[in-house]
Amino acid sequence: MKITRIIIHNYRSIIDADLKIDDSTLLVGANNAGKSNVINAIRAFYDDLRWTNADFPKSDAIDDSAWVKIYFSLTDSEWNNLADDYKNENNPNTLILIRRFKGEKAKSTQSNIYAIVDEVENEKLFYGAKNVGIAKAGEVIYVPAISLSSDQMKTSGPSPFRETINTLFKKVVSQSTAYEKLVNAFEDLNTEVSVNSDGAFFEISEEINRSLSDWEIRLQLNINPIKFEDITKSLVQTSFFDEKLGSEIELRNYGEGFQRSLIYEIIKIAASQKEVKESSKKEFSSETKILLFEEPEAFLHPSQQELMAYNLRKLAEMDDWQVIMTTHSPTFISKNNDQINQIIKVEKESCVSEFYQLDKNSQRYLTSAGIDFIDEIQAFVNDSNIAAADKSKAKQMLRGDISDDSAAQFDRFRYQMWLDTEKASMFFADLVLLVEGATERALFNLLLSDRWNDLAKKRILVVNMLGKYNAHRYMRLLEAFGIKHGVILDDDNQEKHHGVINMFMESHKNEFTVADIKFFGGCLEDFLGIVEDKRSDRKPLSVLKALEDGDIPDKKLDELKTLFCEALAL
Question: On the chain, which terminus has fewer CB atoms closer than 10 Å, C or N?
Answer without folding.
Answer: C
